[in-house]
Amino acid sequence: MTKGVHILNASSLQPQDLARISAVVREIFQLPVRCDAADIDLPSAFDASRGQHHSTALLAQLLERSSPEEKCIAVVDVDLFIPVLTFVFGEAQFDGTVSIVSLRRLSNEFYGMPSDDTALHRRLEKEIVHELGHTFGLYHCRQFECVMRSSTYVGEIDLKRAEPCPECRGLLAQRNAADNTITSHIGASL
Fold first, then answer.
1. Taking all residues of the chain, what is their mean pLDDT, rounded to a whole number?
2. How far, in Å, CA of 19 to CA of 21, rounded?
3. Residue 172 to residues 6, 24, 28, 29, 132, Cα–Cα distance (Å)
């Protein structure tokens, strides 16, 4: 049974900004959210030939220190990739416990535009919910505004809502109900 969400801040994001984002996460997943600063070994995941960090290697680090009772998401500033894609905004262990998201390509400055903290925080909020959704077993959605729709560029993130569509919300509720039923049966048999 998932008892909460743990947001690890290994980025330049200010704690008060993360607190606002965590309120959205709490509302959507109906779980307690705690936020802490994190020390992640970013150099160990750096690929010099690409000038990026391998997100799967970072997930492996997070997995070593995560709890099976919490969903954990790290926020970093570095550019992320997986070998089959040029870049990723984030990555998650599907139906698992760990995920990661990067601020790098969510910021206007990356695209040569003026800084916009409001846009950055909205994008980060959506990407955190998206990656956590994968840890809860949600696949990519075809609904245009659903937070679980796949995004290949930042403009697509801007068009999405921060919440799952009704269908994805229903799947999330089913997953949580099944999780609670399994826990109840285990507790009853002890």
1. 92
2. 5
3. 18, 16, 10, 8, 11
Tens digit of each residue's pLDDT (9 = 90 or more) over 87-108: 999 999 999 999 999 999 999 9
Read off φ and ψ for residue 175, nearest 5 degrees: -60, -45
Q: One of 131, 145, 156, 167 is an active-site residue; which one?
A: 131
pLDDT in tens, 147-157: 999 999 999 99
**Is 69 annotated in the active site?**
no
CATH number at residue 147: 3.40.390.10
Chain centre to alpha carbon of residue 5: 10
Which of 83, 86, 95, 96 lies closest to 56, judged by CA? Answer: 83
Inter-residue contact 65 to 39 (CB < 8 Å): no
Residue 190 lies in a domain: no
Report how many domains make up the chain. Answer: 1
Q: Can you tell me which residue has the tokens 């998932």?
A: 2
Q: Tell me how far apart the alpha carbons of residues 101 and 72 are, in angstroms, rounded to a whole number.
A: 11
Q: Does residue 55 fall inside a structural domain?
A: yes
